[in-house]
Amino acid sequence: MRLKKLMFLGLLATLVFSCNKDKSTPETIPPHDRGEQAIEDDQALINYLSTHFYNYEEFENPSEDFDYVVRLDTIAGENSDKTPIIESDKLITKTVNYKGIDQQLYVLKIREGAGAKPHFTDSVYVAYKGELLNEAVFDANHIKSPTWFSLGRYYQLQSNGRLALNGGLIEGYTAGIQEFGEATGFEVNPDNTINWTNDFGIGAIFMPSGLGYFSAPQSSIPAYSPLIFTVNLFRVNVADHDGDGIPSYMEDLNNNNDILDDDTDGDNLNNSSDADDDGDGTPTREEIVINEDGSIEFTDTNGDGTPDYLDPDFFK
């Protein structure tokens, strides 16, 4: 009897261990091929653009109380005579290479915007709404309440002495928002609200999942979901993340739209986050000349072809 009891307990323990092991190690599903997914998503986007319209009539003849917000809807029923987005002369196609794959980004430029356009490293003050191709809205919090976003990633020193990587948006949003310009001015009302000059950028960005979250589902976004963002761009701030006097976009020395892989002094801190780019002990700001008009002169004192701020062999 004792032997049978021990055998039963051993079998039970094996079953329990096996069940726990199955729970803790779920089957890993490899991500989709990015090239194949890009083709599938592009067809889905084309289908959407062919069957949906935006409120172009409101933009063509705006009422006094029109809010200049883009609204998308299906061409059906009482809207069956509307012009599809794909036929709009305001729709452009932009090829974006990301992770080695060329993908199609569609940008509806209802109004380009009269002010400056952002660089891929800048900060933008934008109102937006995000939705899926099935019209499910995953973010509408900021369509009436604009917010600041840093398009570029940068390192910031924390109170604990460690560096934290901040900023950065999904590739499709960054590539799309660069097609728009900011407002040329604004007025501050007595209640501290702002009236923007009515020349800010307005439009929508339609992106494949490969320029969005791809295989990583978000709280309201399933994996492999193409995304749509309607946007109103109000303000652009040219970023200088390390405060060295050189705008961050100019610190992309290899011109690959990635400022994290430019590290002249090899200290594991990229130039756009490093106030002494060449590590010679002299701050970058002291090795360049900033003119009154804001232009920058990159001096090369020893004439070796490398500007002082990137040349560890020259320092003050």
TrEMBL record:
Domain (PPIase FKBP-type) spans: 121-237
Give the Gene Ontology MF terms in alphabetical order.
calcium ion binding; peptidyl-prolyl cis-trans isomerase activity
Q: Which UniProt keywords apply?
A: Isomerase, Rotamase, Signal
Q: What is its EC number?
A: 5.2.1.8
Specify the signal sequence span.
1-18
User: Which stretches does the entry tag as region Disordered?
Assistant: 254-316
Q: Which reaction does it catalyse?
A: [protein]-peptidylproline (omega=180) = [protein]-peptidylproline (omega=0)
Going by the record, the broad EC class of this enzyme is isomerase
Q: Which InterPro entries match?
A: PPIase_dom_sf, PPIase_FKBP_dom, TSP_type-3_rpt
What name goes with this protein?
peptidylprolyl isomerase
Q: Which organism is it from?
A: Christiangramia fulva
